[in-house]
């Protein structure tokens, strides 16, 4: 803490030029990735850890894994939901939510499924979740369109309680520490009966599934259409802010190029100085190197003021 107090995180000249541009910008895009949630303490997808160390997360996040073994896939997602609920939105989530309330022409595209932006009160109409959410559920039956959002019930059904072995205390903190740090090869996942998994209340037939985009699936059409509509609504975009995601890979790189083609200046917030956009940095762009939780509230301050209140929508459950 002392070191951050003596050394400004953001060079004052950059801060000044960025804020001057932010203040006069009317069409702003933000593109969010995992780095935004890193200082909320969320383990990354591939490093899910704990119980799941011996499973390949990529293999579980597919439609065919779900049809083969819905119990196992639900256990994995129940764990990820639980971990995401242990985490709290950080000041960057709140700062972006506040910017969305104050700047009418601000649109946010997020690759995160952790629910932290919605919990921070980011208005849903200006938050497009490219990869869905751990807290959406939808019917897995092709002919049924049932879906719900913001379901923070944990576990979602009793059978999906995170298993613990008998020798261990079951307090949340012990459980969490164990899941994060200690090999759980002695904990066996219980076999789940299909009847114990969440069932669609609409068709009463299909299993519910997590509302995330799995490998091999298309990004949600309605979300892509909303983004398209916003982008084509005007010939200009003033600014794109890329936070905690590699601006070199799809879809981030594509949106950066698209925004640039409409005149946008690019601001990158990333801990890794090498995560520059594929097209490079142009004169007039900004690279803010460091933790999003510290940098984002600071660079947005000229519009949003100080972030003080931090209500958490998941706590009302
Ligand atoms: C979440 O989904 C489960 C399973 O369908 C359901 O029992 C529960 O009531 C839902 N929670 C909320 C808050 O809607
Ligand atoms: Zn259904």
Automatic annotation (TrEMBL):
Please indicate which superkingdom the organism of origin belongs to. Eukaryota
Name of this protein: NAD-dependent deacetylase sirtuin-5
